[in-house]
Amino acid sequence: MLEVALSFVVILVVFLVLPLIIGQTEHKVMAHMQSRLGPMYAGRFHGWAQLIADGVKFAQKEDIVPAAADRRVFMIAPAVALIPYLVVLIVIPIDRDRVAVDLDLGLFFVLAVMGIGVLGSIMAGWASGNKYSVLGGMRSAAQLMSYELPLVLAASSVAMAAGTLSLPGIVEAWQWWWLPWQAIGAVVFFLAGLAELRRPPFDMPIAESEIIMGPMTEYTGMRFALFMLSEYAGIVVLSFLTTVLFLGGWHGPFLPGWLWTLLKVFLLAFVVIWFRVTYPRLREDQLQRLAWAVLVPLSLAQLALTGVVKVLT
C-alpha cells in the first residue's frame, strides 16, 4: 500500500513539473525560431522568470462565469480536460520496474481515458453560452471522431506485434527492427494524437483569427490556466505513449533506462513545438481529408503489414 502511495506521489510530481518544463521550453524555442524577444526578457537571463510571470498573471485575473452559461458544466470543464491525463500516467512505465500500476489491458485503458480529456473542450464550448465557443466545441467533437480511429488502429498494430495490451509488456517485446517495421504506425499515431490535443497545425477549434479562442473564449484566470496546463500535460502523455509504443521506451545503450525514456519524451515534445512554429493552420476540409483519406488508409496498411509479418514469423 505504501509503495502504491509513493508511486502516486512521484507520478503527481512528474505530472505537475513536466508540463511546466515543456511550457517554458515552448516559450524559448518559439522565441529563437520566430525571433520573439518578449519571452527572453522576464528575469533577464534567458527569460528564466517567464513561467512565473505567466502564473502570477493568471492568478491575478478575475474568475468570471457568464450569466448565460450553464454554471456547473462551465466550472467543471477545465478539470475534465486535465484530470484524465493524470490518470493515464499511472499506467505508463518509465523504466522496467517503474510503473505505478501494470494493467493487463493498459493500452485499452489509456486510449479510453484519453478520449475523455477531449470532452472537457466540448463541455466548455456547449456550456459557455457563446456562439464562438459552441463552434469551437463542435470542431473539437469533429476532430475527436475523425482522429480517434487512426489513433486506435496505429496503437493496435503495436499491440498485435507484441502480443499483449500491457504497456510494460509491449516495451519488453520491442526490438530495434520495429523502428522501420512500425514507422508508418508511429507517424499516424503521433499526428492523430496532435490533432486530438488540438495543437497546431490542428488547432481549428481554437483558431484565434476565426472564433477568438473557441471553447475557452469565456474563460478567465485560473480556469483558463487549467486548459493551458491540460494542453501541455497532453503533450507529455502523447510523447510518453509514442516513446513506449514505438521507440522502445527504456531501451538504449549505456544510460539508465528511465533516462532514455525521458530523453525520447523531450525529443518528441520538441518536435511538437517545432510543428507549431513551422506549419500553418489547416482548413477544416483539409483537416478532415487528412484523417479519412490519408491517416486511416495508412493505419489500416500498417495493421495489415503487421498481420502478414506475424503470420510469416
**Which structural category fits the helices and strands?**
mainly alpha
| Uncertain stretches of 5 or more adjacent residues | none
What's the total number of strands? 0
Average of per-residue pLDDT values: 85
Structural description of this entry:
The chain has 313 residues and is mostly helical. The protein has one domain (2-312). It has 12 helices and no strands. Helix 1 crosses helix 10. The longest helix is centred in the first third of the chain and has 32 residues, at 2-33. It is globular, with a radius of gyration of 20 Å.
Short characterization:
The protein has 313 residues and is mainly alpha-helical.
SSE blueprint and pairings:
Layout: H1 2-33, H2 50-60, H3 71-89, H4 106-127, H5 131-162, H6 167-173, H7 178-181, H8 183-197, H9 208-211, H10 221-246, H11 257-278, H12 284-312
Descriptive labels:
single chain, 71% helix, 313 residues
